[in-house]
Every structure is written in structure tokens, then in C-alpha cells.
Amino acid sequence: SLSQPEREGMFHRGPGLNLTSGQYTAPFAGYYTFSTTLHIARREPRRKRQGCRGSRLRVLICVQSCCQHNSHLESISQLESSGDLFTISVTGTLYLQAGQYASVFVDNTAGSPLTVQSGSDFSAVLLGV
């Protein structure tokens, strides 16, 4: 199943993706390749920013909302104090039992309000059982 069909060129196939919850539920036990690309905008006015050097953004794909070792994929990006728009991607393979779900999480340590922009995507494809 792939992302929500918001515009031409995008498609959603299969019963596994719940567009309301943002969760992909595995119809069969097996290895799935997951991918997400998020376009994230910082909403806080530039003049109000602290410019903290340790600010980072983690994007995770987690199984059963459990973002612990061996049950998730993640990517970490440093947030530059001058930027307003960031693109961050996560791709990898996870094993899911039938009925388990995977979903995307954003861990924002920057303290600035962030918005996920349209054009972001989330996909899951069964590789094999």
C-alpha cells in the first residue's frame, strides 16, 4: 500500500494503509520495505529562534508504536538555524507479523513548531514471507 492519492501520479493500493491513523497494518507476516520522505517547515519566525547548536530532528518508522532497538528505522538530521524547510527520508526493511502495524514518528528536539508539508509520503511493500 502506498501514500494517499492527493494528486495525479500518486496511488494507494491494497487494504493495509489506514489514511486516518497513518498506520500500515501488515496483511501477512513477512519482510516489508518501508520508506518515508517528509518535507518539514519550521513555523516559528526566524527572529525568535534560539539557534541552538544541538537541535536535531529524528524521523522514525516504528512497529506497534515501539521505537526501540530492532523494531524501528530512523534518520537524524541536524537543524540549521537559518533554514525554514527540511527534507528528511527514512528507508529500510522490517519484519512484521500479520496484524502488526508500522507508522511514522517525528522527534523534534529543536523546540520550534514544525509542520509536515504536502508532498510528503509513506510507503510499505511486502518483500517476502
TrEMBL record:
GO cellular component: extracellular space
Protein's cellular compartments: Secreted
Residue intervals of the C1q domain: 1-129
Keywords of the record: Disulfide bond, Glycoprotein, Hormone, Hydroxylation, Secreted, Signal
Any one GO molecular-function label of the UniProt entry: hormone activity
Family annotation (InterPro entries): Adipolin/Erythroferrone-rel, C1q_dom, Tumour_necrosis_fac-like_dom
Superkingdom field: Eukaryota
GO BP of this protein: negative regulation of gluconeogenesis; positive regulation of D-glucose import; positive regulation of insulin receptor signaling pathway
Family: Belongs to the adipolin/erythroferrone family.
Name by which UniProt lists this protein: Erythroferrone
